[in-house]
Amino acid sequence: MSAAAAQRATAFAPASVGNVGVGFDILGFSVDVLGDRVTASVSATPGVTIKAIRGVADDLPLEAAQNTAGRAVQALVEAAAPAFGIELEIEKGIPLGSGLGGSAASAVAGVVAANRLLQTPFSKLDLLKFAMQGEAVASGSLHVDNIAPSLFGGLVLTVGIDHPRVKQIPVPKGVRAVVVHPHLYLATKEARAVLSKTIGMSDFVWQTANLAGFIAGCYSNDVDMIRASFEDVLIEPQRQSMIPGFADVKAAAMAQGALGCSISGAGPTIFAWALAEQAQSALAAMEAQFASRQIGVDGWVVDIESAGARLVEI
Amino acid sequence: MSAAAAQRATAFAPASVGNVGVGFDILGFSVDVLGDRVTASVSATPGVTIKAIRGVADDLPLEAAQNTAGRAVQALVEAAAPAFGIELEIEKGIPLGSGLGGSAASAVAGVVAANRLLQTPFSKLDLLKFAMQGEAVASGSLHVDNIAPSLFGGLVLTVGIDHPRVKQIPVPKGVRAVVVHPHLYLATKEARAVLSKTIGMSDFVWQTANLAGFIAGCYSNDVDMIRASFEDVLIEPQRQSMIPGFADVKAAAMAQGALGCSISGAGPTIFAWALAEQAQSALAAMEAQFASRQIGVDGWVVDIESAGARLVEI
């Protein structure tokens, strides 16, 4: 019976914006001002147990198979078959149903912490696959657009589900993300249910042109191309009515010179990209729109590049 | 009445591969081993007239409005309103219905030659718009995936139709295109007609992931990512039955180590990308598949980067 490499480890995984407008289910970026922490400890109880859930959400399932972090660590345990059990303590920093990748962050923090206990740790790409199993518990689908940026940090593209490949995409210097979280709740499953099952050919061509232009603009430091292609013609029109005031919030951001503005993941959080000199005024304008509707908000201006999930001392 | 800047000019515009598998209607690359030439001359006859069509296709419309080069130069004349007429002589080097962007090349060569006659020449982006008008005569749609690479050269992304933006995408050093043209005829209009008008959501996500991965792979010199994402899950399955032996030709290319293989534009030309050391064997293997079906072919290994359309001395 091999011993654990450590008795206890804590990991932080950042929040994230999924879809990024033009990259439905494949593109996301980390929002490193908030995140979830998971502590993994060697336990005499076999398998995965959850000792406690604290923080901004505490009514999550304590049964490991039903919990995003629990299920993700179960997937890791199934692959590693360690000679000990793993007990988790989860501290939620990301509100439930905010569209900020909270379930992904818990899953990622769980596997990063648990990985530290193993004598032979897994690669990040393996951890990605384990975390996807956890994310599926919450969202009902195997999408990776929050998992990958929470784990790797920055703007991240994921290609493939069975054999995912991850690409960190450079973001032009001077570009910031503006993230506004209204105090409303939207379940990812419901937000997915409103989406049409099919896409028209001309919308397809338009959306793919925007996606390609956005990525080419990032790689080539071409802010004008990013601005020109930063438009979701497919998903946003179907979901925007679920967020009170969305059109006005977006218009407010664009009026301040934002490069683009759309829904973070399934919403209700709204994000924009803006040059640093316009980011604070875009944030204020977006928040003011929610305030005028008596909806409370949290808002941040963040660097998009980030270290991603990491072990922390507690 | 302002005089012409030149009495006569000839331009060459290269053939091109449209779609490039993952970039339906938005991505293309130039194939600079063959192309069309158009000579534009100042004429006393107002508007645009076509004096002659020669080369590998001579049964094209002589009426300017029905001819791709003629219509493109008409669009230029409508915008410039020169005090002289323009007469065109067209020399086709690209076979009709080959899927090698022949109509686009004639339109591009036409506007590049005619532009040389103007005292105040247009920008390349303006020429792109004029050439699109010509392409629409042949294909029935305003797509730019052949026009842009023929005009600019190399691997080119176009975002937008009304206000197109063009991005030349770098191709990793050592990557070559293999292009095999079977002696069959496929009309673009017919090849478009077979396509479904709608796309399923999961195919959409898969195709967009491949497109994004392909572009990211090109920018980051990541041949493995290009290989992993070089798959058209949408259009190729609908069109491949129009090309006898397609599946075998593709399998032959992949068996030689090609990075990917798909239909050039609407077909029947098939293209592959391969590392330089595998390109010739991929070409031979692809040609052999057509030969075994008693179908004649032309085939080339080409550098993807190219200067694009240019004025030439004749």
UniProtKB/TrEMBL annotation, chains A, B:
<feature type="domain" description="GHMP kinase C-terminal">
    <location>
        <begin position="224"/>
        <end position="290"/>
    </location>
</feature>
<dbReference type="GO" id="GO:0004413">
    <property type="term" value="F:homoserine kinase activity"/>
</dbReference>
<keyword id="KW-0963">Cytoplasm</keyword>
<dbReference type="GO" id="GO:0005737">
    <property type="term" value="C:cytoplasm"/>
</dbReference>
<dbReference type="GO" id="GO:0009088">
    <property type="term" value="P:threonine biosynthetic process"/>
</dbReference>
<keyword id="KW-0791">Threonine biosynthesis</keyword>
<comment type="similarity">
    <text>Belongs to the GHMP kinase family. Homoserine kinase subfamily.</text>
</comment>
<dbReference type="Pfam" id="PF00288">
    <property type="entry name" value="GHMP_kinases_N"/>
</dbReference>
<keyword id="KW-0808">Transferase</keyword>
<keyword id="KW-0028">Amino-acid biosynthesis</keyword>
<feature type="binding site">
    <location>
        <begin position="95"/>
        <end position="105"/>
    </location>
    <ligand>
        <name>ATP</name>
    </ligand>
</feature>
<keyword id="KW-0418">Kinase</keyword>
<dbReference type="InterPro" id="IPR000870">
    <property type="entry name" value="Homoserine_kinase"/>
</dbReference>
<dbReference type="GO" id="GO:0005524">
    <property type="term" value="F:ATP binding"/>
</dbReference>
<comment type="pathway">
    <text>Amino-acid biosynthesis; L-threonine biosynthesis; L-threonine from L-aspartate: step 4/5.</text>
</comment>
<dbReference type="InterPro" id="IPR013750">
    <property type="entry name" value="GHMP_kinase_C_dom"/>
</dbReference>
<dbReference type="InterPro" id="IPR006204">
    <property type="entry name" value="GHMP_kinase_N_dom"/>
</dbReference>
<protein>
    <recommendedName>
        <fullName>Homoserine kinase</fullName>
        <ecNumber>2.7.1.39</ecNumber>
    </recommendedName>
</protein>
<keyword id="KW-0547">Nucleotide-binding</keyword>
<feature type="domain" description="GHMP kinase N-terminal">
    <location>
        <begin position="67"/>
        <end position="154"/>
    </location>
</feature>
<dbReference type="InterPro" id="IPR020568">
    <property type="entry name" value="Ribosomal_Su5_D2-typ_SF"/>
</dbReference>
<dbReference type="InterPro" id="IPR036554">
    <property type="entry name" value="GHMP_kinase_C_sf"/>
</dbReference>
<comment type="function">
    <text>Catalyzes the ATP-dependent phosphorylation of L-homoserine to L-homoserine phosphate.</text>
</comment>
<keyword id="KW-0067">ATP-binding</keyword>
<dbReference type="Pfam" id="PF08544">
    <property type="entry name" value="GHMP_kinases_C"/>
</dbReference>
<dbReference type="InterPro" id="IPR014721">
    <property type="entry name" value="Ribsml_uS5_D2-typ_fold_subgr"/>
</dbReference>
